[in-house]
Amino acid sequence: MTGGLVVVGASLAGLRAVEGARRAGFGGPVTLIGAETHLPYDRPPLSKTFLDGTAEPPFYRTEQTLVEELDTRLLLGEPATGLDCRNRVVAVGDREIPYDGLVIATGATARGIPGTEHLAGVHTLRTLDDALAVREALDAGARTVVIGAGFIGSEVASGARKRGLPVTIVEALPTPLVRAIGTAMGEACSALHAANGTDLRCGVAVSAIEGDGRVERVRLADGTVLPADLVVVGIGAAPATDWLVGSGLTLDNGIVCDEYLATGRPGVYAAGDVARWVNPLFGRHMRLEHWHSAAEQGGAAGAAAAVPGSAKPYETVPYFWSDWYDTRIQFVGVPDADEVEVVLGDAAAGQFVALYRTGDRLTGALALNKPREIMKFRALIGRRAGWADALAFAAKRREPISHGVS
Ligand code: FAD
Question: What is the pTM of this model?
Answer without folding.
Answer: 0.96
